[in-house]
Design goal:
about 180 residues, four-stranded antiparallel β-sheet, five-stranded antiparallel β-sheet
């Protein structure tokens, strides 16, 4: 089980759970401890993480449904309906504090942003735009966070430089006779 988010009113926890095939689905459970966990949706695809919008009406998720990871928004908590936000691949979505943008990492290593409208039951997203290049660190929900002002980011970047690792076997024998 992987916890991903808590709703802004503190009522729900979103978490992921792998099925027997290794694909992950998203579930919610009340923080009160009363009630059962509910699947947001169950598909044969890998879908994680899930982050609830500030107005608690939507959840952003990335999925491999198309054969590559893409960012989608789904009504919360019903899970019915789906709108694609990324256009050419995307991972690790995060909402802006005011819910007017979704940030995500593109497959080519760029930090992207798409404006969104979440009026009532209507969801619309604008064309994603590149903010800056970002070589995400492996693992860990994209290894970034967005400052509440939406203009600054805390990032853990993967180093483009890798130090070689050498393994010297039988070094003790090499010292014999010296």
């Amino acid at each position: 089980l992987w916890p991903y988010d808590v709703s802004s009113d503190g009522q729900w926890v979103v978490y992921g759970r792998q099925d027997d095939s290794g694909q992950e689905d998203l579930f919610i459970i009340p923080t009160s401890g009363e009630g059962e966990s509910q699947a947001l949706f169950r598909t044969p695809y890998d879908e994680w993480p899930g982050l609830i919008s500030p107005n608690q009406r939507w959840i952003a998720v990335d999925s491999d449904e198309t054969g590559r990871r893409e960012v989608y928004v789904i009504p919360f908590p019903s899970g019915s309906g789906r709108w694609q936000v990324s256009r050419n691949g995307g991972r690790f979505p995060q909402w802006s504090t005011d819910g007017t943008e979704i940030f995500f990492v593109s497959v080519d290593g760029s930090m992207m942003a798409a404006t969104v409208e979440t009026d009532g039951d209507v969801f619309r997203s604008g064309e994603p735009r590149q903010l800056f290049e970002y070589l995400a660190s492996p693992g860990g929900l994209g290894s970034y966070d967005v400052h509440p002002d939406g203009d600054r980011f805390a990032l853990v970047e993967q180093s483009a430089q890798f130090a070689p690792i050498s393994l010297f076997k039988h070094w003790d024998k090499a010292l014999e006779g010296r």
